[in-house]
Write a structure and sequence with these properties.
mainly alpha, single chain, 18 helices, 1% strand
C-alpha cells in the first residue's frame, strides 16, 4: 500500500514539476528577450531611434487613417500611407481632399500626427511626461540636443519647457483669431474646429487645409494674410533663435544690454531678406496674371506665397497656372526652407548663408569664412556643404525616378513640362512644403510607384538635415596620420 501511495504521489507531482519547469523556461526566455532588447536599444544612436520613432508614428497613423470610420469613402492603403507620412513629416502634400474625404475622427488623427511630427516625436513625448508630472529620461533629453541643436542636458530641459509654453500660447492665440474669422462664413462649432486645425497646421508648417482650394478664397482677407503667415514665420524661425530674442528683450527690460547670438542674427536677417525678395519676385512675375484685382490684394497674395513657399505649403495662388519662372523661383525658396530647431524643412537658412559666405570668401581670396566679426569653424562649413550636396543629390535621384514612373502621364496631362512639374513635386516633398502643380487632388495624379517615391522623399526630407548633421558630427574623429598634400586643378 505504501508503495502504491508513493507512486501515486509521484504521478501527481510530475505535472506540477512540469509546470514549474515550463514557467521557469518562460521566465528565462522573457529575461533573455528583455536583455537582447536592451542591448539592441543601447546599440542604437539617438538619430536612429528618432528615425524609428517617425516610422512607428507613420505606421500607426496609416492604420488609423485606413479605418472605415476615418473616411467618408474607403481609400487605398497607399493613400493612407501617403497622408500619414505627409502629416508626420509636416509636408502637406495630399492625394485625397482632407476636408471632403476624411471624417472628424480622421481629421483629428491628421492633426495629432501634425503636432507630433512638427515639434519632433521625442520633444512631444517629453513635454507630455513633464506635463503629467513625470521625469524625462536622460536619453530623451540627449535626443533633444540633436533635434533642436542645443548643448547640454540643462539647456535641453530649459528649451523643452520654453517650447511647450510657446507652442501652446502661439497655437491658442492663432486658433482664437482664426475661429473668430471663420464664424462669419460657417457655424460656430465648425468655425472653432477650422480655427484649431489651421492654427496648428500653420505653426507646425504643415500646410494641411480643410478647404479644397487652401486659402485661395481668402486671397484678399486681412486676417488670414496676417495670422497664418505670422504663425508660419514663428514656427519656421526656430526655437533657439526665438529664445535668444526673448532673453535679449528681458535683459533690456532689466537695464542690461545683451547682444543677440550670431545664430539668431543670421536667422532673423536671412528670414527677412528671403521674405522681402520672394514678395517682390512674386509681385513682379505673377502680379500681371492677377488681373481684375487691386494692388493691395496682389501684394497680399505675393507676401502670403513668399512666406508659405519656403516651408508651409498653403497657397492663395493656383500653382497649376503660374509661370515656369515663378516655379523655378519657388523651387529655390523651398530648398532653402526654414531655420534650425524649427518645425520647417529644407536645408535651412543658416546652411544657405554659410554656403554663400564660402563662395564670397573664396572670390575675395580669403581662407577663413567670416561674418559679423566672427569666424565660422571649418567643421560647420563642411557640415553645411555636405547637407546641401546630399540634399541636391536626393532631389536629383528622386526626380529621375519620377520621370521614369510618371513622366509620360504628367507630360500628357499638365500645362507645364513634365520635368519642371516633377522637379517641383520632389522639391516640395524634400522641403516639407506641400505645394503641388499636379491636378487630380494634387499629388493624387501620380501612380502608386510615384507616390512611394514621394513618400520616401518626404521622410528623408524631414529627417535628412538632422541625420546628415549627426552623421558628420559623429564622424568627426581626429586621425593619427596625414597624407602628403598635392594640388589639383579645379574650376
Amino acid at each position: 500500500m505504501q508503495c502504491r501511495a508513493k507512486c501515486y504521489n509521484r504521478r501527481r507531482a510530475r505535472p506540477r514539476r512540469r509546470k514549474l519547469r515550463k514557467a521557469g523556461h518562460r521566465l528565462w526566455e522573457i529575461a533573455l528577450f528583455e536583455r537582447a532588447r536592451k542591448e539592441w536599444l543601447d546599440a542604437l544612436s539617438p538619430v536612429h531611434i528618432l528615425a524609428l520613432c517617425f516610422v512607428a508614428a507613420i505606421v500607426v497613423g496609416t492604420v488609423a487613417l485606413w479605418l472605415p470610420f476615418s473616411t467618408r469613402e474607403p481609400i487605398r492603403l497607399v493613400d493612407a500611407l501617403f497622408t500619414a507620412t505627409s502629416a508626420v513629416c509636416v509636408t502637406g502634400l495630399i492625394v485625397v481632399d482632407t476636408g471632403a474625404r476624411f471624417t472628424g475622427f480622421g481629421q483629428g488623427v491628421i492633426l495629432c500626427l501634425i503636432q507630433l511630427g512638427g515639434l519632433g516625436i521625442m520633444a512631444t513625448s517629453t513635454v507630455v511626461l513633464v506635463a503629467l508630472g513625470q521625469r524625462a529620461s536622460m536619453r530623451n533629453l540627449a535626443m533633444l540636443r540633436g533635434e533642436y541643436t542645443v548643448s547640454g542636458i540643462g539647456s535641453a530641459k530649459r528649451l523643452l519647457l520654453t517650447v511647450g509654453v510657446f507652442t501652446v500660447v502661439a497655437e491658442t492665440a492663432g486658433a482664437v483669431v482664426l475661429a473668430n474669422r471663420f464664424m462669419h462664413d460657417m457655424p460656430a462649432g465648425r468655425a472653432v474646429w477650422f480655427g484649431i486645425f489651421h492654427s496648428i497646421s500653420s505653426f507646425c508648417n504643415a500646410g494641411f487645409s480643410l478647404f479644397s482650394d487652401s486659402f485661395v478664397r481668402y486671397r484678399g482677407d486681412l486676417t488670414i494674410n496676417c495670422v497664418v503667415p505670422f504663425l508660419i514665420v514663428f514656427g519656421g524661425i526656430g526655437f533657439p533663435a526665438l529664445i535668444d530674442l526673448c532673453h535679449k528683450f528681458l535683459a533690456r527690460l532689466g537695464g542690461v544690454r545683451l547682444a543677440l547670438s550670431l545664430h539668431a542674427r543670421i536667422v532673423f536677417t536671412a528670414t527677412a531678406v528671403l521674405i522681402v525678395v520672394g514678395t517682390v519676385m512674386f509681385l513682379v512675375l505673377e502680379g500681371p496674371s492677377m488681373h481684375g484685382t487691386s494692388f493691395s490684394e496682389r501684394l497680399a497674395a505675393s507676401w502670403f506665397q513668399s512666406v508659405t513657399t519656403r516651408t508651409a505649403g498653403f497657397n492663395t495662388l493656383d500653382f497649376g497656372a503660374v509661370s515656369e519662372p515663378t516655379l523655378l523661383m519657388s523651387i529655390v525658396l523651398m530648398i532653402v526652407g526654414g531655420s534650425p530647431g524649427s518645425t520647417a524643412g529644407g536645408i535651412k537658412t543658416t546652411t544657405f548663408v554659410v554656403i554663400l559666405l564660402v563662395v564670397f570668401a573664396r572670390l575675395r581670396g580669403h581662407e577663413r569664412v567670416e561674418i559679423g566679426k566672427r569666424s565660422i569653424p571649418a567643421a560647420v562649413v563642411m557640415k553645411a556643404l555636405v547637407v546641401a550636396l546630399l540634399g541636391v543629390a536626393l532631389i536629383g535621384v528622386a526626380t529621375f525616378l519620377l520621370l521614369m514612373t510618371d513622366g509620360a502621364n504628367v507630360a500628357a496631362g499638365e500645362g507645364h513640362g513634365s520635368f519642371i512639374s516633377l522637379l517641383f513635386e520632389v522639391v516640395s516633398a524634400f522641403g516639407t512644403v506641400g505645394l503641388s502643380v499636379l491636378d487630380t487632388a494634387s499629388t493624387g495624379a501620380l501612380t502608386w510607384m510615384g507616390k512611394l517615391v514621394i513618400i520616401c522623399v518626404m521622410y528623408l526630407g524631414r529627417l535628412g538635415p538632422l541625420v546628415l548633421a549627426q552623421m558628420v558630427l559623429s564622424a568627426d574623429r581626429p586621425l593619427r596620420y596625414r597624407y602628403p598634400e598635392e594640388h589639383l586643378l579645379v574650376g
